Amino acid sequence: MSRPMPRTLPRPLHARLDDATVEPVPLRVSDGTELALHRVYRVDDDRPAVLLLHGHTASADMFVLPETRNLVEALLDAGYEPWLLDWRGSCRLPYNEDGTTYTFDDVALYDIPEAVSLVRARIGTRRLFVVAHCLGALSLSMSMAAGLVPGLAGVVAQGVFMTPRVTVPTRFRMHLSVELMRKRIHRIPVDFRKAGFRSKYTPLFALASLGADCPDPTCQMLHNSAWSIGASLFVHDNLHPRTHDRLADLFGTVPLCVLPHLRRIELAHTVVRWNLSDHRYRALPENALDNADRIDCPVLLLSGSENRLWPDANRLCHDVLKARQPQLDVRYVEVPGYGHVDPIIGRGAALDVFGHIIDFLDERR
């Protein structure tokens, strides 16, 4: 069971947006959790709004990388008003490291719907889109299946959405190896400098280094291991050198409290509710895919061809939704040569990926 989270200040947003105004917007959701929300704008006009949702242990920083042309800049130039949500799994917030427990039910029930409600209260009748990455997109799919975020103009789900799937080796590690680790540790860090050489995490970094081409321990943990589950987050050559050097800032510690829910989701091959007996979560369906008919907006499913975390998950999602819910406006785009997270943070993403996102939004603005 999750418990209320105390008021806290997020780590400052790491952004280079000299020609735009970044406005912090206070957001405390119904279970008492303090989140971080930012509005980014150049002129206070009637632009459509786009809410950006990061992946687990990442943060809104992934959308405002100063060393590359980032997604927020691309959206501003295309005539949109970006809103950046740091939900409770953000590394800019303390919850992944302070012992707080939560599941993705909390994200789907509280964080996303209440952020959407707040943005709508600010933008009035303007159109609102959502662009979501990884477990931000997965949690969004549950919110949509529950009918908690109706009336969106469109959704872009990058990496995974409603039908997660992993490779056999990753499944083995997720269900057995990491479960055994939970007896000794409660979280898995990515920053070797903070973990230290003589720590209980040293064997995890040693395992991640096996067969790695890059000498950086943080890169090994993310690119060669994905927090010890044997997956990979990106194509190494797609990262700008400065992005590579900042990986320990862009991604944070994984709290193992989320693992049981994630395992249940992976076994079901769809997003399922964890809190089945807690009446607070009764608004969420037990199975998101069985309630996909409640999706009431167009959806673009996006993925890199080299996605080694959720391989072919969004292709599968497209095929399943088209077969089971033919009335839905769902399309799938695969970007050649990209992995899981580099479609957002890659140095060439502005040329190779962002156009697909903006074209989809432009069709519906």
UniProtKB/TrEMBL annotation:
Pfam families: Abhydrolase_1
Cofactor: FAD
Keyword Nucleotidyltransferase: no
Chain ranges of the AB hydrolase-1 domain: 48-138
UniProt KW keywords: FAD, Flavoprotein, Hydrolase, Oxidoreductase
Annotated InterPro entries: AB_hydrolase_1, AB_hydrolase_fold, Cholesterol_Oxidase
GO molecular function: hydrolase activity; oxidoreductase activity
Family of the protein in this entry: Belongs to the GMC oxidoreductase family.
PANTHER family assigned: CHOLESTEROL OXIDASE, FAD-DEPENDENT OXIDOREDUCTASE 2 FAD BINDING DOMAIN-CONTAINING PROTEIN
Protein name: Alpha-beta hydrolase superfamily lysophospholipase
Species for this entry: Actinomadura namibiensis
